[in-house]
Each structure stands twice: as structure tokens, then as C-alpha cells.
Structures
1.
Amino acid sequence: MKIQFDDPLFEAWTQRPLLNIAEAGAEIGEIKATAARIPEGDRDAWYREWTASADRLYAEADDCAARGARVSARCLYQRASSYYRNAYPLLLGRPIDPRVKSGYAREAEALPAPPPCSIRRSRRRPFNSGASACPVGSIPAARARARF
């Protein structure tokens, strides 16, 4: 299924975020809109447009987080992280383009933290060989990053 490009490398990297749709890490409309703004074969535009899409989502996520809309913020941060990750691979090479390091740092910063154990659910399961219990689908707070 072709999305946008005749260049097979650009098309393959355009299709890569499709793999994240099932986990809410991308949306097809955003992928197509971003790709439509990139001229065929233009690696600088590739980085610029994927980063612009990610920056927009990151700003929306910050706004949601500030209003206490944690679930919406988490989904937006996840999509932003996915698009930051898609922005820099076409720049890889020697010497290393500084945008690769910047893109990777932004990807890591946007990656949403796993939920802390303080989230309560009715079902509980043993965690870590029964040493403690944690709600189903959660991880111990000690391993969670403190974004929320």
C-alpha cells in the first residue's frame, strides 16, 4: 500500500509509524498529512515536518497534563514520541548530523511514563514472585518515571 512516495526508502519510513497505530502510537491521518508536506527525496523537509508534527502533539500533551487530563496527555506524548522517532533515521550517516541526537533526545523525553502502582483496580495479582502485589497492568512505582 503506497502512502505518498515513489522513493522506496521514503515510502518505507512513511509506513513505519503504521506499526504503532494498534498501540495508539500513531494515526493514519497524521501520517498522511505529514508525508504530504514533504517533497520527494528531501531529507531536510522530512526531519522538519515529522518534528513539527511531533512538536504540535507534544504541546497538546503538555496542555492536557496541565489540565489534569492524564489519559489524553499520555496518548499524545506517545504519538509525539513515535513521530520524533520517525524524524531522524533518514539523517543517519557520517558525520553524525546533530539533528539525530536532538531527535533521539526528544523521542525519549516524549515517551510516556508507565503508570505508577498508585492506580487502584479491583483485581490484584502477585508481583515479583509474590513479594508484593500490584494492580493488573501496572508496574511498581519505583520503576515508573515521575511525569505524572
2.
Amino acid sequence: MVDELGQATLCARLGECLECPEGMDCKGSRDLKLNLDAKTKSAALNRVEIFCSSYAYADTAACTSRVFCESHLDDMDCEHAPPELKAGFWSHSSQPLSVFKCKNELQCIGGKPTGSICASGREGRSCGFCMPNHFSNSLGQCTKCGDYDAIPAVVAMILLLLAIGVLGWQMGRKISKSSKQVI
């Protein structure tokens, strides 16, 4: 957020603009904007690299785009860092502050609402569904079905059809016997 002069407001610098929704981690810092076009993002990352290679940060891995944006409040490619989802919570990327609780922390792994927040093979609201051709496992993930997974279903279907056929044949015999006795 910027004021009428284009300066970052105190709210934007401190991350106190909105109450942090339940299930989110609001670090309250600044970072590069998520929706920068490729050319602008490349230029911004170059500025971050130059800043982080300066004398003050040359020997540390702690210098990130967040450190750069906190130090450069006038950089228009920076904004308030979006909150991140905690494990066990989900939100859609189009409405990142509308948070839903997941069935468990194994299904929703957390992270940036714009990234992959569902466990492997999961999709949908609150990561509640397995992707097509996947099945749920005990780790909260959904595992892709293999070709061999269809064999038990085919065998079961054949046995079921056989059982129905035998049952029908037996019932036909009984009906035929009882009709002979009546005549």
C-alpha cells in the first residue's frame, strides 16, 4: 500500500493493514510482487542480487528479496508480502484470504496460496479429492493407479457375473421343479 505521494505506508511496512486470517502465517514484511511480468521480474531480481552481494550481506545466505524490499521501501516492484497458509489449511489463489480448514495436515501442506498447497495427487477445495486415476493413501497423499490396479477389479467383476449366473440357473431349476409338481 502506498500513500498519495507513492511512499509505502506504515501499514504496508509493518503488515498491520488486515487481521491475519486463521490458518495463515502473516510475517508482516515486504517482498517482490507476485504478478510482475518476466522483464520487470528479471530486473527486480537483478537489483536483489546486486544488493545481496554488497559488503553487508556478502557472507550470509540470509539476504533474500524480502530483505531487499524491507531495505528499499521506495521500490515499486515490492509490496506487502502475502501471508502463507499453515499446514492443514487451504485457500484458492483467486481469494487467498478466504481460508478453509482441511480434513488434516497431511492433505494440505501449506505454503503460498498461489503455489502448490495440496499433498501429492490431491486437488480441489481443502485438497479433499484425489486427482483422476489416483487413490488415497495413509499419508494424506493420493497415489497414481498403476496398470495392475485394474486386474483385481476385473477379476471381481467376472466372479460377480459368474455368481449371478449360477444363482439365476439355480433359481430357474427350482422354479421349473416346483411348476412340475403343481401340474
3.
Amino acid sequence: MTCRYFFSGPAPEKSVIVFERGFKKTPVCARAPLRLQSQCAHGFVSPVVLPHKIATLLYCFNERDEVLLMERLREPNKGLWSPCGGKLVTETGESPYACACREAHEEIGWKLEPADLHLTGIVSEHGYQGQAHWLMFLFEVKPRLPAAALPAAHAEGRFEFFARDALDALRLPETDRQQIWPLFWRHRGGFFAAHCRATENCRNEWLLEESIPQHRANA
């Protein structure tokens, strides 16, 4: 039985579909979903499932209502500004709230309890950058950081406080700029759930699955 193997995914400048055994290489969009398929002589195609990763993001504010962001030194989003956070330890059954508290202590040296967190949103991303599916829990931290208490830089990146209107000038992940930040500001104090699906034509399709803006949450 003759089989051909196809691979597509992001590269520094472009991605290619590679046909082994010397078949033609064809460029594809670097943002297209990752595929690893085995196509045999009878035409059957079996896709390999992408990993599903679960993470938390911490939206921390100081006494001036400036948001704390980290310029990341590592992938994903290397060189871009985003809230701090990290992946759940799924092997131990860690909850999103426990993960957020642990990440707050590890990244900014702040000891939090689940009661210190407000779950503002849940974002699921299908085929993000062609590498993985993501499920992200967005928490606003209720206690405020002192305006002068900037966390120290570490191996993950460096921190700065920013006013809301300063975010437009920052290097942000595109999904954050286009969708996640607008959804966060609209639902701050409330709740939302949104799903993003990467398509083959390099477009992200967004679906707002639940929306409870702040004024409705406080009604």
C-alpha cells in the first residue's frame, strides 16, 4: 500500500505542505490550521488531532485602574504584550481558579485566594496558529496592586502598567486586539464566553456564545 504524508504549519516566513518521497512542495497560509494526514492509495484521509491546552489569564489592575501586562520573552506570543498567566496542571486535576492563584504567586509574587478572582470570560480557540486548540479562563483580580508595585522581570518577560487608551499603541496578539480586549472591556464585571475558529482561508471566525455585560450582571 502506498501512502503519502501531508504536513502544514507556521514557519518564520511561510509554511509548506510537504509531500514525502520527493513530491511537490506547495506554499500554504502560515495561519491555516495544522494538519497531519495519511492518505493511502484507496483515498482514505485520517487527520491527526491537535493538542488541546487549557490556560488562565490574569487581568490585574493598580490603584489608577491601569492594567498590568507582560512583554513575553517566550512563545506563544513572543515579543507581544499580554496579561500574565499560564497553563493548568491537568495531570493533578488543577482547577482554573487554583491555576490562576498559583500563577499569580509564581509570576508576580502575589498570594491570592479563589475569592479574589472574578471570572470575566472563557475563550476557546480552534487551531490557534495551526498548533493547538486553546481553552482560556480570563480572571480579573479584585484586589488592586499599588501603583508603584511593579513586579520584577523574570524568565517569562517584563511587566508594565498601561492605561486603557494606551493599549492601541502596543504590540498585542491580533486576536487580543481584534476581539478579546473589546470583549473584556464590554463585559468587565459581567461574563462572556466566545469561540474562535481558524479557517483554511486565513480568517478567524468568532462566535459570542454567552454575553452578560456589567450592567446586566449588576441588575
